[in-house]
Amino acid sequence: MGVTGGIAAYKAVDLASKLTAAGARVRTVMTEAACQLVMPKSFEAVTAAPVYTSLWSDPQGHSNSHISLADWAHLVVVAPAGADILGKAANGICDDLLSTILCVCWATPTLLAPAMNTRMWENPAVQRNVETLRGRGVHLVGPAAGRLACGTEGVGRMAEPQDIFAAIEELADAGRGA
Predict the structure, then answer these.
(1) Are 175 and 134 in contact (CB under 8 A)?
(2) Which of 89, 69, 98, 71 is nearest to 137 (CA)?
(3) SS3 of residue 93 by DSSP
(4) Angle between helix 97-104 and helix 65-72 axes, rounded to 10 deg
(5) β 2-3/28-30 pair status
């Protein structure tokens, strides 16, 4: 599970907890910005697994954590997925651990939960990236409409953890042929 630096990052802890309680094995990859908003220890506590925060420091001691995590993953989830990670994933930009994993996992089922300001979401470049990702089979849940961190109302809120959880179950069931 990837976590980027949007204010909705705190909701990702709840999502990780729900997934773990349902029996999923969750490995969390946080961007540097996400670590400014939520402590990695929060994810470690709810998943009972180490958190990955850098290409250059791997809690498991692997020298190629992006490859080992990509090989391990059956499903990739990014919540919240800000405009930057959408652009990186759409264009193959690999400048941090999460974007590098997304590049390696291009054939792994992937679910993104976008979260950003309405004007960012409506930006033609962001919409082009979303269409590119959808065209490659990447699934998106949200964004939802409602009150945003900036105090305005609009589309851009990350979907609620229970809605992301339901989308993950649906995607996992489809992968199992259920």
Answers:
(1) no
(2) 89
(3) coil
(4) 50
(5) parallel
Containing structural domain, residue 158: 2-176
DSSP 120-163: HHH-HHHHHHHHHHHHTT-EE--PEEEE-TTS-EEEEEPPPHHH
Task: Provide the CATH number for the domain around residue 115.
Answer: 3.40.50.1950
- pTM (predicted TM-score): 0.90
pLDDT confidence of residue 58: 60
Catalytic residue among 35, 94, 103, 150: 150
Tokens 């791997």 belong to 58
Number of domains into which the chain is organized? 1
Residue 65: per-residue pLDDT: 65
Structural contact between residues 129 and 91, judged by C-beta atoms closer than 8 angstroms: yes
φ and ψ at 132, to 5 degrees? -60, -45
Residues of the chain with pLDDT under 70: 56-73, 175-178
3-state secondary structure at position 31 = coil
Please, what is the angle between helix 9-21 and helix 161-176, to 10°? Answer: 50
**Separation CA 129–CA 117 (nearest Å):** 16
Concerning whether 150 is annotated as a catalytic residue, the answer is yes
What is the structure's pLDDT at 108?
85
